[in-house]
Amino acid sequence: MHSYRPAPVLEALGVCSEDEQLYRALLARPECTTIELSHDTGWPATRIGRHLRSLLSLGLASRTPGRPARYVPAVPEAAVELLALRKQAAIVEARVGASVLTAEFRARHDAFTVVRGAEAIAQRFYQAQQCAQDEVLVLDRPPYAVVPIEPRRAQGVLYRTIYDMASLSEPTDLVAARSAGCRILRDVPLKLVVVDRRTGLLPTSPDVVVELGPSSLLDGLLRLFELLWKQASPLAPSAAEGPLSFEDQQLLSLAAAGLTDQAIARRLGVAQRTVERRMQRILKSLDASTRFQAGLRAGQRGLLV
Question: What is the value of pTM for the model shown?
Fold first, then answer.
């Protein structure tokens, strides 16, 4: 009987420690009999037989013809690869089964469930964040029943957050939120978290959250988010952004008053192409799609002062 037992390495693939111990004994003495394995391990024959049957079913050993029966271990590299493939297939099958169960659940519960209580809500927000694969969309506004969701900085997971101005009342809050995926808007209408465009968490009161699955309601909330995103102002300035020049301020003021590019060019004494070029640069630097939006954002950021 061996006095040293190495740490098991195949448990993650569904092989118990005793099966692995017997497999190691087979690797040390290929083509051995049950009696020889019993001698090497110190196990009784009934225990050897039970774990040999397990190794045979796992593909870690095979039996030679003839008597007495002898057992041959599978090559470790090939055996582990086979176990890994089986494990992956089981995971895929479980996910397919989960999707079927989810569909059945949604059909019975009208595509939404209700989560109650601060602890359950905090756990569900955490679970949703951990399961994100592609994208998380957040509408953030006070008051907070739980700590606001924190971005999981995992590769491939994109966060887009729209903060209500009241969410960033402190200077430290504003500094922490200045990233490319954050924007600010006055009076965000509701709180919302959407994960991978398939799961939505919609707080309806301090201790109640409605969880939405794929549905027309979730589609409507996604459209609302995109509309608010276009209206919101980026918190992270672009590299080209800075205080507007006096000429830029004049140009924006004239455009906001409704003057055409030709009229602005005459007023400023420059070519119309110059006005068009400068306006495109201003729109780009302010991440604005219209002249009105550019003027609004410039005013919000104090760039017209």
Answer: 0.45
